[in-house]
Amino acid sequence: METIVMYSDGGSRGNPGPAALGVYIETLDKRFGEFLGTKTNNEAEYAAIAAGLRKIKTTIGKDKSKRTHIECRMDSELACRQLNHIYKIENEKLQPLFFEVWNLMLDFGQVTFSHIPREQNTVADAEANKAMDEATGRTAQKSMF
Fold this sequence. Notes:
The chain has 145 residues and is of the alpha/beta class. The chain has helices at residues 41-60, 62-65, 77-83, 94-105, 122-136; strands spanning 2-12, 17-25, 30-39, 68-74, 110-115.
């Protein structure tokens, strides 16, 4: 089974506040960010994971997806532990986002979630910040999440 490594990050300036997601699909050399409007950090984290999984599926196709392992790396300990069934999801706003990711997982042979230090997630972080900067008219600044 082929493995695709994806890094995801989401954040907001304020909690809630202007938010964006960032994704770096290392194996496919694809990166992107997307402004999300007003969201919490955790909502943006889940949105990043879902966006990355959708992008992988559209890039490699449905048939190949079923034979592919996606290794999702993120610096959100909360999202990672919730997706690995270590933490319960008590926040009602996160429950539908969890189910969205869970349903997207069915498109792949295997999906795993790993927590990594922020220092190892700089590309996805930069994409999220770039999307926030462009949407809010700010100049690039150091990561705030």
